């Protein structure tokens, strides 16, 4: 009876567990319910189903109106410039599928845009990288600058743009240093280890006119190259088609092949030493690695060329003090895109290359050993 009274009055007797028998605990709201109470706030939160995270906003269709600066540009090049971070392969895929429309109609990649046209761009997701970092601002020696152009003296060892394992190149660094130049673009390219004259356009109209000039062969581009052996001719034109390929390591290369693109370089002898010659190289076409491949084809590779050069000679050049490839974009002649006047821009031979020429002169001046 006492036990019944205690229970009715809420005085529950304390239970004891037999020795050696494990206890069984009920967690969370279930334990509270078994005890006749309400679940705690923490338990309720644990028991409540988690609210789904808001879904990321879906990218929307964009309609871009072509301004005067983009007029005359091919639709594929316009999309590459506009859709930063979208692979070129995907851009050509949406062009082929008809998802890109110009004034409501399908657009082939070679279509040239006109001012006032509307380009429909489909929804695109751009992959973002957690380790992405902005380019660090950097100034380069300026050879000429006006409202249309920025012409710099590119140092060896600097890629002109990011890609292929290089996060940021010269163009990204200059844009970071000159954020007011929103339309700054490369007019042409130089190999990473080549120094010298590099043209950048500040306006789309200037870029378009200079590209037309380059395509028509109306520009003169001259390089200085130190080559192996004794070059015999004062002037020699090399016409050898070049075919692009990729090595097993993923490096871009070219080789002389009947299946390649027509390529022509004119070489002029400037200086001769017992072990090397200095050449003026005039590009009549603008293929990848053209000068380097043509000189290797003739048996006179460029000094310290790690792709097409002679390993043994390169090693000897290193011992003599040459630490970089001896190829320099020395002079470029073109028509100014706004004024129409003929312009010639020159970049002096870098100290490392000029100093090596002096070294060759000094070695040649030594009296021959008896």
Protein architecture, described:
This protein has 370 residues and is α+β, with helices and mostly antiparallel strands. Among the domains are: 62-121, Structural Genomics Hypothetical 15.5 Kd Protein In mrcA-pckA Intergenic Region, Chain A (Roll), CATH 3.10.290; 205-365, Pseudouridine synthase (2-Layer Sandwich), CATH 3.30.2350.10. The protein has ten helices and 16 strands. It has helices at 2-8, 28-34, 41-47, 75-82, 88-96, 170-177, 204-215, 290-298, 311-320, 351-365; strands spanning 62-65, 101-102, 105-106, 118-121, 142-145, 149-154, 185-186, 195-201, 220-228, 235-239, 242-246, 252-256, 264-272, 276-283, 327-335, 342-346. Strands 5, 6, 7, 8, 9, 10, 13, 14, 15 and 16 form a ten-stranded mixed sheet that branches. It is elongated and about 75 Å long. The N and C termini lie far apart (133 Å). Residues 1-36 have low confidence and may be disordered.
Structure at a glance:
The chain has 370 residues and is an alpha+beta fold. Helices cover 25% and strands 23% of the residues.
Q: H/E order of the elements?
A: HHHEHHEEEEEHEEHEEEEEEHHEEH
- Biggest pleated sheet: 10 strands, mixed
Number of strands: 16
Count of discrete alpha- or pi-helical segments spanning 4 or more residues:
10
Q: What is the CATH class designation of the domain at 205-365?
A: Alpha Beta
Shape: elongated
**How large is the share of residues in beta strands?**
15-25%
CATH architecture of the domain at 205-365: 2-Layer Sandwich
CATH superfamily annotation of the domain at 205-365:
Pseudouridine synthase
Share of helix, binned: 10-25%
Provide mean pLDDT, rounded.
Answer: 84
Question: Pairing-aware structural class of the strands and helices?
Answer: alpha+beta
What CATH calls the topology of the domain at 205-365 is Pseudouridine synthase
End-to-end distance: 133 Å
Low-confidence sequence ranges: 1-36
């Amino acid at each position: 009876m006492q036990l019944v009274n205690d229970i009715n009055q809420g005085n529950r007797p304390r239970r004891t567990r037999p020795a050696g028998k494990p206890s069984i605990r009920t967690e969370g709201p279930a334990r509270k319910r078994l005890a006749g109470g309400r679940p705690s706030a923490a338990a309720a939160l644990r028991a409540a189903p988690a609210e789904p995270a808001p879904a990321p906003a879906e990218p929307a269709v964009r309609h871009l109106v072509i301004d005067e600066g983009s007029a005359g540009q091919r639709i594929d090049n316009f999309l590459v410039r506009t859709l930063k971070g979208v692979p070129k392969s995907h851009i050509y895929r949406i062009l082929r599928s008809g998802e890109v429309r110009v004034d409501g109609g399908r657009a082939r990649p070679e279509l040239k845009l006109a001012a006032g046209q509307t380009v429909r761009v489909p929804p695109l997701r751009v992959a973002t990288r957690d380790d992405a970092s902005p380019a660090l601002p950097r100034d380069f020696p300026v050879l000429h600058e006006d409202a249309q152009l920025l012409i710099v003296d590119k140092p060896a060892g600097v890629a002109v743009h990011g890609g292929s394992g290089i996060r940021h190149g010269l163009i990204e660094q200059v844009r970071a240093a000159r954020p007011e130049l929103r339309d700054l673009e490369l007019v042409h390219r130089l190999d990473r280890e080549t120094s010298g004259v590099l043209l950048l356009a500040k306006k789309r109209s200037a870029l378009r006119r200079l590209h037309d000039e380059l395509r028509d062969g109306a520009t003169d581009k001259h390089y200085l190259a130190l080559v192996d052996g004794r070059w015999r001719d004062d002037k020699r034109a090399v016409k050898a088609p070049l075919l692009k390929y990729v090595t097993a390591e993923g490096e871009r290369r070219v080789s002389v092949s009947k299946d390649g693109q027509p390529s022509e370089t004119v070489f002029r002898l400037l200086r001769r030493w017992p072990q090397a010659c200095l050449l003026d190289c005039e590009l009549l076409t603008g293929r990848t690695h053209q000068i380097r491949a043509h000189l290797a084809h003739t048996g006179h590779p460029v000094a310290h060329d790690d792709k097409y050069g002679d390993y043994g000679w390169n090693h000897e050049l290193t011992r003599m003090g040459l630490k970089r490839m001896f190829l320099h974009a020395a002079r470029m002649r073109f028509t100014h895109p706004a004024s129409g006047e003929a312009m010639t821009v020159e970049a002096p031979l870098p100290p490392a290359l000029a100093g090596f020429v002096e070294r060759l002169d000094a070695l040649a001046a030594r009296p021959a050993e008896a």
